[in-house]
Amino acid sequence: MTVAVVVGTRPEAIKLAPIVELLGSRALVIHTGQHYSASMSGTLTPHLGLPAPSPWSAARPATRSAQLGHLTAALGHVFTSRRPAVVVVHGDTTSALAGALAANTAGLPLVHVEAGLRSFDRTMPEEHHRVLIDHLADLCCAPTPTAHENLLAERIPPDRIQLTGNTIVEALEAALPSAEHQARTLAHFGLVNDGYVLATFHRPENVDQPDNLSTILAQLDSLPSPVLLPAHPRTRSRIDNYGLHEPTGALRLVEPLDYPDFLALACHAALIISDSGGIQEEATVLKRPILVVRRSTERPEIEGTFGQRTTPGPHLASLATHWLSNRPRKLAELASPYGDGRASRRIAHSLDAMANEITTAKTA
Ligand code: UDP
C-alpha cells in the first residue's frame, strides 16, 4: 500500500525525511516545489533523498489563491491516478493545505504531522491553514502536550489525535555532521566555538516591512560578536528591493546553507536569533539559547527556558547582548519539549495501521 507524502518547503522536507525513510518503498513523495530556488530545495535533495520537484510545480501562479488552486488540482490528479492508501501533509504551508483539500476531495484518509500548533494570530495565513488541515485530518499527530490540548479545545475527537512528539529531533540527529565536519564549517566562516551569533529571518512580518527589516539588520550589525545570517531568498530579495545598505559591522549575510552545515553552525553558536519555527525546535535539541523575533508564536514551549520571544525594535541589540553575557547555565540538562526522537516511528506505525485497516476493509 502506498502512502503519499506531500512536501513543498525546506522545513517540510527536513521534518518528513525520517518518516519517508521508515516507509521505504511504500512512500510516494510528491514535491510541489513551493520552495523552488536551488538554494532552498535543491540542496536538500542529496542529503534527504527527496525527489526533484514535480514537473507541474514549474507553473508559478502569481497569487496565493491561484497557487492553492493550482496545487490542489495537481495533487488531486496525482491522488486520483495513483490511489495511495493514505495522504500525509506537514505543518501549515500552502502545499500542506492543498494536499489536505486534494485528499479530502479524492476521498482519501489524511494524516497531519505537526498538528495542533496555534498562534491565535488570525493575521497569519499559516494559522488558518493549520486549523483547516486539523479539522480535515483523520489523524492529527500532535508534537507536544500543548498542541494536543489545542486540538481537544477545538472539539477534535480524541480518537483522531495522537501525541507523537516532533520528528525534528530524529531529523536533526540523522543530519548532524561529524565533529570534523562541524570544525571545518566553522573554520570556513572564520568562526570559533561559542564566539558568534547565528541569525535567520524570513517571516513576512519582519522582512516585508522595510522599517522592521532595516531595524533588525542594523541591530544585528551592532552586536559585540560576529553575526552570520544565511539569507532566505525572500529576505535577500527584500533587501535588494528596499535598497538597504550592506552591513559594515558584525553582520555578514551568506547564501542559505545545506542542512548539515547549518546544524554545524547552530550547534556552536553562542546565541541564535531567528523568526524560524524549526530552528526554535532545533535550539532545544542542540541546547543553544534562542531569541525569537515574532509578533506571536505557535511554539510557546521555549519561553523562559531555552529562550525568549521579542519583537523587532531598537531594544534587540541590548536584549541579545544581555543573553550573550548571561548564558543560561543549565540548558544542557533540560530535555527538549519537542520529543524523545521516536515521533517518526510512532507516526509510521499509525500509517501502517491505517493502511492495513483499509486493505482489510477492501478484501472483506
Ligand atoms: N535551515 C537550513 N539552512 C539554512 C537555514 C535554515 O537548512 O540556511 C533549516 C533549519 O535548520 C530548519 C529549517 O531550515 O530545520 C527551518 O526552515 P525555515 O526557517 O525556512 O522555516 P520554518 O521552520 O520557519 O517554517
From TrEMBL:
The keyword Isomerase belongs to this UniProt entry's keyword annotation: yes
Q: What would you give as a GO molecular function for this chain, any one?
A: UDP-N-acetylglucosamine 2-epimerase activity
Q: Does the keyword Disulfide bond apply?
A: no
Q: Which InterPro entries does the UniProt entry name for this protein?
A: UDP_GlcNAc_Epimerase_2_dom, WecB-like
Concerning Gene3D superfamilies, the annotation shows: Glycogen Phosphorylase B (3.40.50.2000)
Say which domain of life the source belongs to: Bacteria
* The EC number(s) this enzyme carries: 5.1.3.14
Q: Which residues form the UDP-N-acetylglucosamine 2-epimerase domain?
A: 28-351
Q: Keywords in alphabetical order, please.
A: Isomerase
Q: Which family does it belong to?
A: Belongs to the UDP-N-acetylglucosamine 2-epimerase family.
Annotated protein name in UniProt: UDP-N-acetylglucosamine 2-epimerase (Non-hydrolysing)
Instruction: Identify the species of origin.
Output: Saccharomonospora amisosensis
Supply the source organism's classification: Bacteria, Bacillati, Actinomycetota, Actinomycetes, Pseudonocardiales
